[in-house]
Amino acid sequence: MGNSMPCRCGRCNRVLRSAEAIEVGLGSSCCRKATGKTIKQVLKERREEAAREAADGNEIE
């Protein structure tokens, strides 16, 4: 209880608080600096890519 390590930003090492930031691995400012996009934009692109890959995988079988 309470012994888990906090998730930290991969760029500046600050503690990440939101679930979205934890999923991306970057805080909001660092995400914009590193990718030029917001966390929500990065997550949307990742989910769209995963959906395309899943659809491509289903077509092959």
Termini gap: 45 Å
Principal-axis shape equals elongated
How many strands in all?
0
What share of the residues lie within helices?
55-70%
Radius of gyration: 15 Å
Structural class, by secondary structure, is mainly alpha
Number of helices: 3
Folded structure, characterized:
The model has no long low-confidence stretch (mean pLDDT 89). The protein is elongated. The chain contains three helices and no strands. The protein is mainly α. It has helices at residues 19-24, 28-35, 39-60. Helix content is 59%, strand content 0%.
Topology, please?
Elements: H1 19-24, H2 28-35, H3 39-60
Can I get a quick summary?
The protein has 61 residues and is mostly helical.
Features:
single chain, 61 residues, mainly alpha
